[in-house]
Design goal:
The complex is a heterodimer. Chain A contains four helices and six strands; from the N terminus they run αααββαββββ. Chain A has a six-stranded mixed β-sheet with strand order 2-1-6-5-4-3. In chain A, β4 and β5 form a beta hairpin. The radius of gyration of chain A is 20 Å and the shape is elongated. The relative contact order of chain A is 0.16. The mean pLDDT of chain A is 91. Chain B has a seven-stranded antiparallel β-sheet. Chain B is elongated, with a radius of gyration of 32 Å. Chain B starts with a helix and ends with a strand. The N terminus of chain B is likely disordered. Classes of the chains: A alpha+beta, B alpha+beta.
Chain lengths: 166, 224
């Protein structure tokens, strides 16, 4: 009986370790973490110096492929390189009180071992320091990712029109 | 005999005066508490009596081992709590979606900051109808649009001078108080499409999210 118990405990332990490893090494989890990192790098505090802004831009560049293609819908701008995207983001004037970007409802589909597709809702919340009014916006985004040098980078992103206007 | 009985009996032996027994311990098939004398110190077992004695302790109490128990019947209380938790999980997981309203696009009927619920079973037995205020999911349910349905599948929707027209006829919208001169060319909805728009037409058109939405994106209708 003790031998059976030991065997049973070993099997349970092995199964638990296998499950934990599966969970830990799941590329979908790594991609979700990367997207959280992008959102974090896109967020800006209320007071941000020039150096902080450069540091944030440098962090952001690590999340995108050099030839990333971004489309902001039918009426929005389109960019075909990482430099153009970073320049657009740097020029963007958000709420003066800073803004917080978060991703929610991330659904990752693996296309191959090194390519994936992610569908998510991006939330942007900000505060106007003078009025204290909170602003909130959310957009649906579809992104393509590829694994390069061991890290997942965004190779393409486009806004999804939840409500389609003619 | 349990410890309470021994305690009471020892008190009876010590001074001989009757005491009122408070049977906090649970007994099955026993009579209610009564004034105890030397002869009636033990609980009287009556066949067919199934209701346990009502204890004076209600709510949180400690039993004789010092363990915290909830109510006179901890098992029943635990069962009730489990049923309650399961009901809450089912209701908020599959039936009601809590919605905190943000923004001004549905004013004046719905103001920002208000809490509401989307009934996810609303369209289980009937299709969405014109005038329904619905929640529309984005990538998931963490963020939803709240809009009013104005156009139904197959209809032709247009906006001219702020007036919504359905198949060429102006739509009467009691929820809309004031209108800016919005304009939108006619669009014919597909078989699974609805046209949704907010009540606040006084705001600028480009600041207002509205348009066609597929049926499978409509989560449910707002409760109130």
């Amino acid at each position: 009986m003790p031998a059976l118990r030991t065997l049973l405990a070993s099997l349970v332990l092995a199964a638990a370790i296998w499950l934990a490893w599966q969970w830990w090494s799941d590329p979908r989890r790594a991609i979700a973490r990367r997207l959280d990192g992008v959102a974090d790098a896109l967020s800006a505090p209320a007071v941000e110096g020039q150096l902080d802004r450069f540091a944030r831009a440098a962090r952001l560049s690590g999340y995108f492929a050099p030839d990333v293609r971004v489309s902001a819908g039918r009426s929005g701008p389109s960019m075909a390189s990482r430099d153009a995207l970073l320049a657009t983001l740097a020029a963007w004037k958000g709420p003066a009180g800073g803004w917080d970007v978060q991703v929610a409802d991330v659904e990752v589909t693996m296309e191959s071992v090194t390519t994936a597709h992610a569908h998510m809702t991006v939330r942007i919340a900000g505060v106007e320091p003078q009025t204290g009014a909170r602003s909130f916006d959310a957009r649906e985004v579809a992104a393509r990712l590829a694994k390069a040098d061991g890290e997942w980078v965004i190779t393409g992103a486009e806004l999804v029109e939840t409500l389609q206007q003619p | 005999m349990n410890s309470t009985g021994i305690l009471v009996l020892s008190r009876l032996v010590s001074d001989g005066t009757p005491v009122r027994i408070n049977w906090t311990q649970r007994f099955r098939r026993v009579a209610p508490c009564r004034v105890a004398t030397e002869r009636t110190a033990r609980p009287v077992v009556q066949p067919g009596w199934t209701r346990p004695p009502r204890a004076d302790t209600r709510g949180v109490a400690r039993n004789q081992t010092g363990r915290v128990v909830f109510g006179p019947h901890p098992r029943r209380t635990a069962l009730r709590a489990a049923v309650l938790i399961a009901a809450v999980c089912v209701i908020f997981g599959a039936v009601l979606l809590p919605v905190r309203l943000v923004g001004i696009s549905m004013e004046p009927a719905y103001r920002g900051g208000g809490l509401n619920f989307a009934n996810r079973l609303a369209f289980a037995w009937r299709p969405p109808a014109r005038g329904d205020v619905v929640a529309i999911r984005m990538a998931g349910l963490h963020v939803v649009y709240v809009k009013r349905i104005v156009g139904l599948p197959g209809e032709r929707v247009a906006i001219a001078a702020g007036i919504v027209a359905i198949d060429g006829k102006p739509l009467v919208e009691p929820a809309v108080v004031s209108r800016a001169p919005w304009s939108m060319p006619p669009v014919t909805l597909a078989a699974d499409e609805y046209f949704v728009i907010g009540d606040n037409r006084a705001m600028a058109m480009h600041d207002h999210d509205f348009g066609r939405v597929r049926r499978d994106r409509i989560v449910g209708t707002l409760l109130f």
